[in-house]
Amino acid sequence: MPRPFRPVALLPRRRRPKRTAGLAILTLTAGLLAAVPAQAAPAGQQRQRDFAAAAQEFGVPENVLLGVSYLESRWDFNAGTPSTSAGYGPMHLTDLREAGTGTHHDEGAEDARGDDARQAKLPVTPAPTTPPAGLQTIDEASRLIGQDVATLRTNTTQNIRGGAALLAKYQRETGDWNAAVARYSGAKDTAGAQAFADEVFDTISRGVSRKTDDGQSVTLAATPVSPARDQADTSKAGTSTTECPKKVSCLSVPAPYQELPKNDYGNHDKADRPKSQKVEYIVIHDTEGYWDTAMDLVTDPTYVSWHYTIRSTDGQIAQHVPTKDVAWHAGNWYVNAKSVGIEHEGFAAKGTWYTEAMYRTSAKLVGYLARKYDVPLDRAHILGHDNVPGTIPATIRGMHWDPGPYWDWSHYFDLMGAPLSGFGRPGSPLVTITPDFATNQPAFTGCETAGKLCPARGSGSVVLRSEPNDSAPLLKDIGLRPDGSASTMAVSDIGSRAETGQRYVVAERRNGWTAIWYLGQKGWFRDARTTSPAFGLVVTPKPGLANVPVFGRAYPEPEAYPANVPVQQVIPLPYTFSAGQRYSAGNVLGSEYFWATTFDPANHVVVKGKTRYVQIQFGHRVAFVKADDVRILPAF
Hints:
Largest sheet: 6 strands, mixed
Helix content: 10-25%
Mean pLDDT: 88
Low-confidence stretches: 1-39, 102-107, 231-238
Number of strands: 28
Shape: globular
Radius of gyration: 25 Å
CATH class of the domain at 235-416: Alpha Beta
CATH topology of the domain at 235-416: Lysozyme-like
CATH architecture of the domain at 235-416: 3-Layer(aba) Sandwich
Strand content: 15-25%
Structural class: alpha+beta
Strand order of the largest sheet: 5-11-10-13-9-14
């Protein structure tokens, strides 16, 4: 058995520290050890006491320990499941042997470009690789505290002790706490590691308090701190070749625009946005693989592309395609031509969780892009890949469903300063879906094995039923199941599921249940703190129309196309939007089609028509209706 770790004095309280920049933070943080002492933690706050005790045992400033844990896990236990980068528990101790891998991208036949005129011919997506070997930290933590790795994965007290022991070891080896925190991130590059450390110390300066997913109240008191840095200044991490907010680490990893044999090319299209087309959307994806695999794929000219990737461990950003150009990412060419796509290292189907470091950096990037392109910060414009509609009936079943039901949209928008709840007149017929993420735990299946229950984890998804009772069948999605069968609780099945931040019109209320209009049906759910009243506009068929067609793209009328551009058919989706039904209105859009089928961008044409469309929240995915077919009304 490894010899138990014996704590040593890490902070030079009685002797004067050496006058080096790297050790300046020791003087700064030495007084913080007693910021929230163990004996001051209120009764019942076991996790708070665990942090205080571990900090004292291993000589780690308690604020630093709390800050690191918050950036990794927000102090959550996450039902003992691993993060997207194989980390367990509040301290995100990584164990590659247990975390496993998986992909949902091989379940569908989505053409990421989503253009009938030129489909992207893709190689088979490679099987997901294992996480980088450098992320195996649980073994060292086990050796340091004399606890087996299974205990460190499942026991939060020992997990916190293991993380504290690792931080103390890194401080002894590096000489200062800034470098120790940066090393704890697991980032291989200096800029990414320092960006993580900057976020930790910013969190310490601001303070934070929350209740964890397993009911523990934890507080990090605000303590202004300005750590000295021997490493790179991340305020200059973005270069002239990247489009990123200040004070984040942003790499340039270009996706190749390359001519290929047989008049083919890859892996994106040159454009001149927003001059040529307005950017209307930012689309959130997950990679279904690890960082290194994503970097390999996006730099393959025969593969598809996206604009940015964000790493799980530290929130590192890589930009691949200039935002003025059109990447092939969303499976719908209309959306691609008018969006920026951001991939996040992670697995939607594994029941895994996304790190706070990733959420924070992503929120900064989306906020920056929203300001740059005047994109409203709401769920009609900030879409998940799972909200992008199929282009025609034949493509609906192949569309992807990432980032999945475990992406915390509410927290994400809070970080962007655009909370999703709290607006609207009480009793409004328009509501925003706002369940409590931690306590809302639908019984999804198939995270690991088809039909098997997923771990009980927080989710932003609300499951809809055909009648106001818990045993009623789920709704039908005729696009996903042409045979007319009901949706299922499979984690990948979005046919009867509303998502946090989406807005719907109330169809009926009965005995604590609420029904919303959804894919032409009434979808029922228990409305105990599940929705918030909303302001906004709704659409309904014009008088005299029994129903109106619903589309997956907003293309122009045939007369708008020049002679050298083939007319793109506007084919209705197989759903019914009938008189008497109402749906939340998003954008009012002009009709456009970006003709780009050649390597030479001089041949690219933006076709603009007279037909106008209204984007609606029709089901889990958005859809489009012709403005001439509907009335747009305030939600009274």
